Amino acid sequence: MDKTKSDKFSPEEIDKVKGLDQELSRLAEKALQPGDYDMVRTYLKRAAESGCMQRDTFGFHPLLNDLETAVLVVQEIGLSRGSVIGVMISTPVKCGSVTIEQVKKDFGEDVAHIIKGLLRIRDLYKKSAAVESENFRSLLVTFAEDMRVILIMLANRVNTMRKIKDTPQVEAQRKVSMEAAYLYAPLAHKLGLYKLKSELEDLSLKYLEHDAYYHIKEKLNETKRSRDAYIADFIDPIEKKLREAGLKFHMKGRTKSIHSIWQKMKKQHVGVDGVYDLFAIRIILDSEAEKEKMDCWQTFSIITDMYQSNPKRMRDWLSVPKSNGYESLHITVLGPKQKWVEVQIRTERMDDIAEHGLAAHWRYKGIRGGQSGVDEWLANVRSVLETGDDMQLMDQFKQDLVEDEVFVFTPKGDLFKLPMGATVLDFAYSIHTKVGDQCIGAKIGNKNVTIRQKLQSGDQVEILTSKNQTPKQDWLNIVITGKARTKIRQSIKELESKQASMAKEVLERKMNNRKIDYDEAVFMHTITKMGYKSVTDFYADIANDTLDINQVLETYAAALKHARGEAEHTLPTQSAKDFVMQPEAERKLYANNDDVMVIDENLKGIEFQMAKCCQPVYGDDVFGFVTNGSGIKIHRTDCPNAPQLRQRFGYRIVKARWAGKRGTQYPITLHVVGNDDLGIVNNITSVISKEEKIILRSISIDSFDGLFSGRLTVMLEDTSKLQKLIKKLKTIKGIKNVSRS
Q1: Cα 575 from chain centre
Q2: Number of folded domains in the chain?
Q3: Tens-digit pLDDT profile for residues 196-232
Q4: If both were cysteines, with which of 88, 313, 578, 669 could 332 make a disulfide (CB 3.0 to 4.6 Å apart)?
Q5: What whole-number distance in Å separates Cα of residue 552 and Cα of residue 550?
Q6: Mind listing the pLDDT tens digit for each residue in 557-603?
Q7: Whole-number Å distance between alpha carbons of 620 and 634
Q8: Are residue 202 and residue 244 in the same domain, yes or no?
């Protein structure tokens, strides 16, 4: 019988099961309640006799896998009753030899809850050894519901990676290893399971880059004797000094993981011998709870008195622990033979947390107090799940797993933890969604910075806001945190929806005023014909004035007539009794195309306004466009919409010129590009404020790769003042170009 299909145990597997049973029986004394393990044995026996189980992709028996994972869960992670029982009896439930209701009755709701989470994940892995991208969201949903499910799946993946060294399923081995590297190892890091994280990374490297792994391993084996001798020479004088100080401790010397060395080799472009910090020394102090920090800093002082330290390589996770509870003091010193050595200083409690991660951190919460930042991270995971793109979700989730953090302060001294590379905008959204939506920049050390500014540990950040600010689409390229991305998308969506509703109301009102019937099929066809794939985009362009609402109505009215079989040029015969004499001024516009409309603020009998698309001012070459119901709009002759208006509605174009009288101010938008220098905004506003009869209405600046791009809206009277202002702005140091929008 094919071993990969058979649910029967082989002789070797029977021996393993017996050994695991004895080990779990011993571990059960502290992890389980009396009678639990006997009931578990009954469940397992019933499942083994039912013949309902199937081996996995690699031919491993599911019950054996469960028992091995259970040992890992207890020994490596330190999980307790619910998790251990859940792991061991999930297969009997999955194959149907026992029901969830029976589990609730025998073990309680907690165990049943864990089994449900494990079964959901195992269903995702049915077709493939690694979860497919379309199932990634479901995987995260289960992860986010119960932290213990993540920890169990980590243990299960470590167990699998240990056993697939000689598997003939090479493609499945590659998929599992890649997933371990990009998902499970970063998860282990985030949760503080550094031992399991290193093992997953090393095994992934072993299976994915075989030659590199064994090259490094051989090099380490060759230098092991000399490395051990060096470590002994390094720690001997330290041990003497620490004992003289009356400190209780023990020390470990460890070589860095093969994966870590490989990453350094690639980053620094060197061979194994070129990696200067191949090993680290760990000093673990036996300290009372109230003396932990004092003892660690005393040890730090003793070591730095003996060996020169590298201040750039110091990491203080005593004062501000990592979000997963990790506490330690890391320093790099110059040891004998001018070699750099990393020294980690921590207490027994800190070491327990560093080795066993979150479970150990929870055990000590009663002693230390405080809320684990992992709870906040899980909340962010749930928030990120609201996004719609699965591939984007995968990238964001992986990014959120990066453990490197920066610690920044509010002006009141409140501490915030953010991932390395976080910007001012990320920080604003971490405070509150409204603060993020209205953020225009920040003050760091009394200096104004843009929303793109990356934060450094120790920064005191004061967020600057404006009620007129709204989220922009390109903000998604500025932030790196999942929370900020989700909130920006939500805010933009809400803003677009609100604008679209307003635009829709305006359009419907104008239709009613002109007595144009609404036909949904014709209207949707018109939108499609105008090049829009969605109604939201269509209404957004109307709201932003990039689409003339009168053009829309003209196009729709023509389409409606065509749909009803009416000729576009046919007009109903008008009765003489209904004829109304046009005003003199209006008759001039239509009677002779050579007549010119004179634009004067005192012009009577004609309603006119400046077009928003090109913002004409006194002195521009202009023309008038006769609209239906909104009077005449004045456009610049070089308006982006001018060619289309002349081509499609030439009969409604009116020549126009300005009257001699001035006094009215017009809004103008200028586009400014230059070097992203400190104080550039102040220089721009200073020049504008000195100009007579020019008012700055708004300014928005975005910076990218050392350059900035800004939009200024100013109120001025005529083109002569405009040209004068542009000329002065171009003289500002760092300004590359100023153009009119």
Answers
A1: 67
A2: 5
A3: 889 999 999 999 999 999 999 998 888 888 888 888 8
A4: 313
A5: 5
A6: 888 877 766 433 443 444 444 434 434 443 344 334 445 777 765 55
A7: 10
A8: no
